[in-house]
Fold these 3 entries.
Entry 1:
Amino acid sequence: MIHLIGDSLILMGETGMNEYINALEDGKSIDEVETYVPFVVEAIISAVNELIELGAKTILVPGGLPMGCFPMILKLDYGYDKTKYDNITGCLFQFNKIAEYHNELLMKELNKIRELYPEANLLYADIYNAAMQFYRSPKKYGFTNEVSKACYDFTWVLRYNDSVSWWDLSPTLCDNPDTYISWDGTHLTEAAYKIISKSLLQGPYTVPQFYSSCLLKEMDVLSSFM
């Protein structure tokens, strides 16, 4: 078991954005939600430490996505104060700042682990900036629908109509899912995740870069047989 974990690339799931979004939807202030960030990051770091103690050598840890660009967040009522929105992306500044704070703190804590476990190969996946590529230039990547629209936004049917239950919903999918960034208001479409995945595996959006890190890992394995 230890040998299997040590020879595997372990991908941790994105953690924290749901907690922040749910709190904001429940009426918590942005300032209050920001106080949750250290606790969320602490939980992620605890899991990373546990994996290393179990024998993990290569772990890919993603940061948080720019949730200020999610249709569910954009549909919250913040009036028409243009200063709250990014002129280029249309995303809400304050919500993205929570994700940025989360990511900055996570990277700092990962650096501490690297010092404690120099033999571990920890990669930070910068999915925030990987995603900002298509939020800044959606049409360049084939996303012809507005950022604020989701392919299947069923959550809003439930939220604004108390007489409707999950069992009453008749799902109607959009005709061209690949032209949308968001699937349901908080999750991205397959097309969006493909761009993020390629950016992580072949581009500059992992720290250290994924290709060079895996190459070094492969060289270490080969050297052990020489």
Entry 2:
Amino acid sequence: MRRTFTAVAVLVSALVMAAGAAVAGQALQGVVSQQPVVWTPNVLDGAIAGMAVVGDIVVVGGNFTTVADAATGSRAARRSLFAFQLGTGRMLDFAPELNGRVTAVAAGPGGTVYAAGTFTKVNGDVWPGLVQLDLATGGRVAGFTSTAGPGQIRTMTSSGAWLYAGGSFTTISGQRRAGLARLSATAGVVDPGFDLRLARRDGGTVKVESVAVTQDGNRLAAVGAFDTAAGMPRAQLLLADVGGGPAAVSGWSTDAYTRKCKALYDSYLRGVDFAPDGSYLAVAATGGMAGPTLMCDSVARFDVTGSGVHPPVWVNRTGGNTLWSVAVTDAAVYVGGHQQWMDNPRGRKNAGPGAVPRPGIAAVDPVTGKALAWNPTHSRGVGVEVLVTCSAGLLVGSDTDQLGRAYHGRIGLLPATGT
């Protein structure tokens, strides 16, 4: 068994070296391994809220305080943010001082990373909600001047010259934006040509839970608590054309999420990701037990070509358990949450006809929408809130410590197989 683990570690190291950089959202050939590598560090408390890959470095954000080396068990104090090397798990000295939790991270240019959260100070200086940090020093990148609030950034992604941020904020760097903004990747200046004017008909706070951008940078998807965008009906899910000139809400739409799951949810959508070629997207949802006619507690595929109203291509329901996260590759649509089953449209927190057990993590066939045989298992807890693809495989972040039937403290990597 030890030889198997070592071979996996060597494989991942080779993949990283061959790629030159591990880039989030990269296409993976074949389904990733069910056996996690043994060298990822163990986070000993709290939960993971975000991960970003910068070259061969993984940056992890959340609300934790202590991280341990997987091989030696040696502990290091790391509040809310730390970094480790792909292929070895070696922790970096990177240890910026933040006085609050991190809710989102995104890769930055030139060996930097963006972090957002509830913090109001960075390395002792007043700097609320959003910062760009140098991975070599842990210091703030002085040229990036943006801050966040009031409200909170809940999701970020970087694409070319831009950083996209979504959340519950009403302003960012003093500019009014309801829940979604685009910033210059280098200076943090809010783009005046990007304002999708998200709104809720009940007058409540707009909240964007997840954003994704196609690899060519031309299209953006966002999910969350909103009913309209630029005055057009867009219930919980929108597409925008962002490739050139001022951004505009796409003519593509769906009415799949117009119906409520439970009154307590202002939005029940939690994750969104595009296919590597940008031809479709997948959406992960919570929502509660509502039977097979609604989109609650499900993952769904939508083709995104053309305009007009689009129904889902397929829907895979858990039978009453939350899905938090989704990551799409050529071979699979991966989902994470605290689900017990997939293929379970008639389940009501039990296994209905045809249900297959897939605790915490699952892979769905992109064409058929049925669960693949792949079943590493993950301890449930609140659930797997973070899935990130890179050339090395699938990074998994959560609040629990069992992945692949072995101890992995809140972080794991299921390595690429290359087949």
Entry 3:
Amino acid sequence: MLPDRLPLVDLSALGTPEGDQAIATELDAAFGGIGFAYFANTPITLAQQDAIVAASRAFHALPDAAKRAIDMNEFHRGYMAPKTSVIATSSVAKVTKPNYSESFMFMHEVAPDDPRFGLPLQGPNRWPAELPAFRDAVLAYQAAMEDFCRRLLRPVAIALGLAPDFLLPFFEKPTTFLRLLHYPPQAPDSADDEFGSAPHTDYGFLTILLQDMSGGLEVRRKDGAWLKATPIRGTYVVNVADMLARWTNGRWQSTPHRVKNLSGGDRYSCPYFFDMDMDARVECLATCTDAGNPPRFPPVLYGDYLLERLNKNYAYRQPPAA
């Protein structure tokens, strides 16, 4: 029977042997069934969640000129104005209209003396001069989320029949994104193909989404029906992304999802994308293939896959018109 709501996974016992085993069992059921779940009782407190949402609201309340002064740089960090991204690589729908949303993108910190500095997506973050406390709020939340996600690697590995520490080497220098999104309200009679975020899948490993109470996120079930990811205070909505689906040979699915803000007010969400090292090679796990279930996807370097999608989906990465 297909689910009529997203499953909920309780992380109260995360980090204990018994807890990680129980969580692994629930993860396998949720991610194999619909690819999405609510996570409750995470290590991230309500105060931490509220602080990052408040920081996002403060940033998006700035004058347009102040935001555009820190437009997205070549390293995919900074402000993304409304209607500047089109999900051209969507495998779900023919997307021609840009997303009706704006966002601030922060990625993992790369110090100037880091050997990676200057490589694709390895550069400085950008910060609004008008909000002196903003940088500290974002960095604190990012650090808490990275620690949380590293702790998740053990139950994920256990769920896939791997040694608990199997995934750790792939995340020595993880690729992380924190995106502070603002969705203006859409008219109730807006066109069917107008979205705050058009139907799409995510690129990497796991997405950990903090959403406000406005609603608007929907997840596509296997039969094509769209389920509402109704906000639950204090929880995260977590989904499998493309690289994890490829790693598991489709055992866990990277599920299409979309956003349409019909709440009548502004919607704020803070997705955190936790992905492997840029040079990590992703190929079918031995525990997810056998003679009757050969690998469905060729091996791929995560960085190559990511850059190919960013280059197609974001206006600032397009070559100038001749």
